[in-house]
């Protein structure tokens, strides 16, 4: 056996043991409950509306286009986790104009090329969470995630130690990506 105690039915719940050990993570309730999450009540409170009004370094903006911009995720899954956001405060992908849709796709492609040049990930996760029920942390302003992935980058550190290992700070990541955007040297 594993040396761990045999699992029991969860206290207060009827039933038979299911063979799973439990690793409780009550600290994640802050995230689940939405505490410390940016307000999502329109353009005045929207961090995706505010970011392009700051200088690139302060706003973590990597690149700007006519209709969309690329910005580092303030709470990244991995170094180089970018968000492609329209400037316009729009929630639903189907409400983008054809120009916004095209540029969002082009920026997503360039984000992948840039991150590959800068840090050589083995793969990517790309996606949009639409609406609060779909998992969008800021549902009122659409944003596409570009998450670089490396073999073995997911581990138990966030669960066990309540720590996410990020080997680079935002300022360095932003500067390297901005320098490499559009084919520049990293």
Write the layout of secondary structure elements.
Elements (H helix, E strand, L loop, with lengths): L28 H5 L13 H4 L5 H4 L1 E4 L3 E5 L9 E5 L11 H22 L3 E5 L16 E6 L7 H4 L9 H11 L6
Antiparallel strand pairs: 1-2, 2-3, 3-5, 4-5
Helix-strand string: HHHEEEHEEHH
Structural domain tally: 1
Judged by helices, strands and strand pairing, the structural class is alpha+beta
Principal-axes shape call:
globular
Helical fraction equals: 25-40%
**Structure annotation, total helices:** 6
Going by CATH, the homologous superfamily would be HIT-like
- CATH architectural category: 2-Layer Sandwich
* Average predicted confidence as pLDDT: 80
Determine the CATH topology. Answer: HIT family, subunit A
CATH class, please? Alpha Beta
| Rg, Å, rounded | 20 Å
The tally of strands reads 5
Low-confidence stretches: 1-7
- Trace the largest sheet across and list its strands: 1-2-3-5-4
Give the biggest sheet.
Answer: 5 strands, antiparallel
In percent, how much strand structure appears in the residues? 5-15%
Describe the structure.
The chain is of the alpha+beta class and 186 residues long. The protein has one domain: HIT-like (HIT family, subunit A, 2-Layer Sandwich). It is built from six helices and five strands. Strands 1-2-3-5-4 form a five-stranded antiparallel β-sheet. Strand 1 and strand 2 (68-72) form a beta hairpin. The longest helix has 22 residues, at 98-119. It starts with 28 loop residues before the first helix and ends in a 6-residue tail after the last helix.
Please summarize what this structure is:
This protein is α+β, with helices and mostly antiparallel strands and 186 residues long.
């Amino acid at each position: 056996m594993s040396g761990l105690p045999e699992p029991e039915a969860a206290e207060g719940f009827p039933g038979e043991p299911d063979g799973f050990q439990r690793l409780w993570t009550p600290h994640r309730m802050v995230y689940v409950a939405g505490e410390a999450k940016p307000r999502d009540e329109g353009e005045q409170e929207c961090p995706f509306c505010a970011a392009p009004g700051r200088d690139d370094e302060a706003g973590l903006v990597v690149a700007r286009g006519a209709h969309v911009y690329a910005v580092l995720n303030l709470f990244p899954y991995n170094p180089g986790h970018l968000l492609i956001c329209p400037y316009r405060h729009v929630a639903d992908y189907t409400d983008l104009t054809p120009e916004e849709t095209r540029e969002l796709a082009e920026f997503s492609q360039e984000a992948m090329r840039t991150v590959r040049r800068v840090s050589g990930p083995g793969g990517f996760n790309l996606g949009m969470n639409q609406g609060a029920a779909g998992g969008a942390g800021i549902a009122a302003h659409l944003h596409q995630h570009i998450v670089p992935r490396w073999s073995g980058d997911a581990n138990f550190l966030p669960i066990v130690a309540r720590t996410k290992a990020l080997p680079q700070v935002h300022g360095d990541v932003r500067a390297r990506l901005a320098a490499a955007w559009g084919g520049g040297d990293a």
